[in-house]
């Protein structure tokens, strides 16, 4: 079989956000660029298209308008308290973290605004922590939602790609899967791989890997921007660290199946080094999608702070493992229980104020930039349309008028037989007694009252404290929650130019990496934990760095 041969200045492997940003930067430097991806063209934009569009910014105008006092120093305190870097190989990730913080506190917002991107005016408070000042978590709200969500973030880079394709400076090759990086005299000079059979699959749907031809790309510089491993559950389990307990027997996928980690061993074979592969970011508020697109498709609930969180037996989670406070701390605790699921118990009043679903397709108001729909969805009575669809159709939701019926409905779901219903009743009633006073020993109630001192939370995110069993706040709701795979925090080790490093710490000539494939920079700029809004931002920053450096080769 004779391979199809292409020649270019810069080869980009992967057309997600990092790859598209790198492509734009190389095009701005007047380089010819060729982009390959194993998926059909319907998936152009990769995982970012599905994202909620959250971006981590520091001391932004949006924060200041809501009275938030942020600073680079406070953000650095939070980031490094969260990351807990403790390995010799963390030297480059530390430097990437510092560079990214400077970007997030400086040029990031103006650069994006210059590209036409706007922001929802209310800043979200994700990963609230609940520990000491130098422990994990965001001290202040920093989660800026892009107007248009993930597709809005992608839009300027997709436009740049379309324009460059039209004038012949860019070639995009769907269904081209790289199987090997070409190396000559120690220099990466391109890639070879399989041309896969055409596919008419819709965006996100799984596709086959049937090869019909071979291809070869000769390039001066090659950028690996192929994403992480979250769609490959076998690989997630193989990399699962002991500190997070035993890997779940069953998980949901927060990313499509093509997020398979297949380029990491390819880059290693060419001399690159993968570090921190045991660092990963998975959610514990996953629900089965009632209208699935990819295998084991799960959606994450972005919870406000009021829901009562119980383990599979009905025992309340310990302080400070409240909804939205410490993702990996909660994951580690729940893995210690020996069960793959947990529960939220809450009122309809909490659902209508606090439940947001992650994903562009679950937020049509923000994604479609529809202000009237946004006002109805975020400020009106009742749950938003997408949330109501899960209440009506979701396999993990139980909606009942009284606690007896709710407990019976919970026990009827798979795994519900583990519930100690007397314990659940005791937890709910005890929590409700603590609502009677404005002061309380219940740390969660104290924290949600504190949250409402932030005007953004009071406006759209945190329900007024009330008894869950108050009939006026009903009906009652229980949600069965699953582990949901999402992000790799480790990856190909890179220097501050995005150059992939070998085992000896020297750059592999001609080879660069960006996005999740590089741990969002350096091989893991987040360390052990992420502050949220930093995944898209990491793709933007590392893609920009790698694209500029590759164009300079």
Strand fraction? 15-25%
* Shape call: globular
Q: Which residues form runs of ≥5 with pLDDT under 50? A: none
* Domain module tally: 2
- If you consult CATH, what is the topology of the largest domain? FAD/NAD(P)-binding domain
Name of the top-level CATH class of the largest domain: Alpha Beta
- CA(first)-CA(last) distance: 32 Å
Count of distinct strands: 20
Class inferred from helices and paired strands: alpha+beta
Task: Please identify which CATH superfamily of the largest domain we are dealing with.
Answer: FAD/NAD(P)-binding domain
**What is the makeup of the main sheet?**
8 strands, mixed
List the quaternary state of the chains.
single chain
Please, what is the average pLDDT?
97
CATH architecture type of the largest domain: 3-Layer(bba) Sandwich
Q: Which value, in Å, is the CA radius of gyration? A: 23 Å
- The helix tally amounts to 18
Helix content: 25-40%
Description:
By secondary structure, the protein is of the alpha+beta class. It has two domains: 4-226 and 261-279 and 489-551, FAD/NAD(P)-binding domain, CATH 3.50.50.60; 282-484, no CATH class. It is built from 18 helices and 20 strands. The protein has helices spanning 17-28, 61-65, 72-83, 91-105, 107-114, 149-166, 233-239, 263-269, 327-335, 348-354, 364-367, 371-379, 385-393, 403-412, 421-433, 443-451, 455-460, 534-551, and strands at 4-13, 33-36, 54-56, 143-145, 170-173, 176-184, 187-196, 211-224, 252-253, 274-275, 280-288, 298-302, 308-311, 341-347, 356-357, 397-400, 476-488, 491-492, 499-501, 507-513. Strands 1, 2, 5, 6, 7, 8, 19 and 20 form an eight-stranded mixed sheet that branches. Strands 9, 11, 12, 13, 14, 15, 16 and 17 form an eight-stranded mixed sheet that branches. Helix 1 links the parallel strand 1 and strand 2. It is globular. The chain starts with a strand and ends with a helix.
């Amino acid at each position: 079989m004779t391979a199809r041969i292409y020649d270019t200045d810069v080869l980009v492997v992967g057309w997600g956000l990092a790859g598209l940003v790198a492509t734009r930067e190389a095009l701005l430097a007047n380089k010819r660029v060729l982009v390959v991806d194993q998926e059909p063209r319907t998936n152009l934009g990769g995982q970012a298209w599905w994202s909620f569009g959250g971006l981590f910014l520091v001391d932004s105008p949006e924060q200041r308008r809501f009275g938030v006092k942020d600073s680079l120093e406070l953000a650095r305190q939070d980031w490094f308290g969260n990351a807990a870097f403790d390995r010799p190989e963390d030297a480059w990730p530390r430097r990437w973290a510092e560079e990214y913080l400077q970007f997030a506190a400086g040029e990031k917002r103006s650069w994006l605004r210059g590209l036409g991107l706007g922001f929802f005016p209310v800043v979200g408070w994700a990963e609230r922590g609940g520990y000491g000042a130098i422990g994990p978590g965001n001290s202040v709200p920093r989660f800026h939602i892009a107007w248009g969500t993930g597709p809005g973030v992608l839009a300027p880079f997709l436009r740049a790609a379309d324009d460059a394709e039209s004038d012949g400076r860019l070639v995009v090759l769907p269904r081209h899967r790289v199987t090997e990086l070409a190396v000559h005299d120690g220099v990466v000079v391109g890639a070879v791989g399989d041309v896969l059979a055409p596919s008419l699959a819709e965006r996100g749907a799984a596709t086959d890997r049937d090869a019909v031809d071979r291809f070869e790309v000769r390039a001066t510089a090659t950028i690996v921007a192929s994403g992480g491993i979250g769609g490959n559950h076998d690989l997630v389990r193989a990399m699962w660290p002991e500190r997070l307990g035993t890997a779940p027997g069953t998980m949901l996928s927060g990313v499509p199946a093509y997020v398979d980690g297949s380029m990491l061993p390819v880059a290693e074979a060419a001399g690159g080094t993968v570090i921190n592969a045991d660092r990963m970011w998975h959610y514990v508020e996953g629900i089965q999608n009632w209208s699935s697109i990819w295998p084991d498709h799960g959606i994450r609930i972005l919870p406000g702070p009021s829901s009562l969180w119980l383990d599979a037996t009905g025992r309340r989670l310990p302080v400070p493992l409240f909804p939205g406070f410490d993702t990996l701390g909660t994951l580690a605790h729940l893995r210690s229980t020996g069960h793959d699921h947990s529960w939220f118990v809450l009122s309809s009043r909490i659902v209508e104020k606090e439940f947001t679903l992650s994903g562009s397709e679950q937020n049509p108001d923000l994604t479609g930039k529809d202000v009237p729909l946004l006002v109805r969805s975020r400020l009106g009575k009742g749950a938003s349309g997408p949330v109501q669809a899960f209440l009506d159709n979701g396999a993990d939701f139980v909606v009942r008028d009284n606690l007896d019926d709710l407990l019976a409905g919970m026990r009827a779901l798979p795994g519900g037989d583990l519930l100690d219903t007397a314990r659940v009743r005791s937890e709910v009633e005890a929590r409700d007694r603590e609502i009677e006073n404005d002061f309380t020993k219940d740390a969660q109630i104290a924290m949600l009252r504190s949250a409402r001192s932030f005007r953004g939370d009071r406006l759209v995110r945190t329900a007024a404290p009330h008894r869950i069993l108050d009939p006026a706040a009903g009906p009652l709701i229980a949600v069965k929650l699953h582990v949901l795979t999402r992000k790799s925090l480790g990856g190909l080790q890179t220097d501050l130019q995005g150059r992939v490093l070998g085992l000896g710490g020297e750059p592999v000539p001609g080879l660069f990496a960006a996005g999740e494939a590089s741990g969002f920079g350096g091989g893991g700029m987040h360390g052990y934990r992420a502050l949220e809004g930093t995944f898209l931002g990491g793709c933007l920053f590392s893609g920009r760095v790698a694209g500029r450096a590759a164009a300079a080769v």
